Amino acid sequence: MSRTRIHNLSISLDGFAAGEGQSAETPMGHAGQRLHRWMIATDFGTRMMGGDGGSTGVDDAVAHRHELGIGSEIMGANKFGPPGWQDDPDWTGWWGDNPPFHTPVFVLTHRPRAPIEMAGGTVFHFLDVPPAEALVVARDAAGGLDVRIGGGATTAGQFIAAGLVDHLHLVQVPIVLGRGVRLWDGLEGMESGYDVEVVSTPSGVTHLTFTRRAE
Ligand SMILES: NC(=O)c1ccc[n+]([C@@H]2O[C@H](COP(=O)([O-])OP(=O)(O)OC[C@H]3O[C@@H](n4cnc5c(N)ncnc54)[C@H](OP(=O)(O)O)[C@@H]3O)[C@@H](O)[C@H]2O)c1
Quick check: is 60 in a domain? Predict the structure, then answer.
């Protein structure tokens, strides 16, 4: 059975998954790289950034699950580009010619455009539909594998609120951002449908997994 999964979604102690002031120069707003330093330090994160030689400890083992068994991704418009990217017909995402997805990727936006085929198997499709409809399309494209909800928080929150997420991996980073895009608004009591496991690692982050309880 194809599942819907979220991985490596990094939040501050006060629940923000991005800072305030997203722009082309500051994709994560005033948070900068602080939410993802733990991941950038790992072998997985280093490879995602086109390098090699990161750490191979517990953070790496957990981060790596992001790419296992995934057949497609759904992401929000603000992950795909900075505010206003829809006005730039040449914008193809942050990730260069060969993005690290290597699957179909469905970008949710109120201003959809024609699909963009990239090197390495990534094809960006643009959808203006509710989460449940997007999931049907992404699942169909995933060839029996799982669908990853790639974020940001607005998109992840919509899918969690709609009861569409089977597995959620959050990484709580010990910083207080104070402002930005929050994950938890509207999700009161969401944990009740999940088995929750929590483990902190020597880097200082805390990994939380929410796995949907069998009915
Ligand atoms: N902390 C992490 O681990 C993590 C992970 C991924 C991304 N990020 C960061 O998070 C930020 C982006 O997150 P975000 O929460 O601001 O935004 P987001 O979830 O990426 O995108 C939200 C936008 O997507 C469009 N959208 C969402 N659902 C839609 C639907 N059902 N139908 C049509 N359009 C829909 C809307 O844009 P329009 O109305 O403009 O079309 C909406 O404003 C970026 O800074 C990114 O780098 C962080």
Answer: no
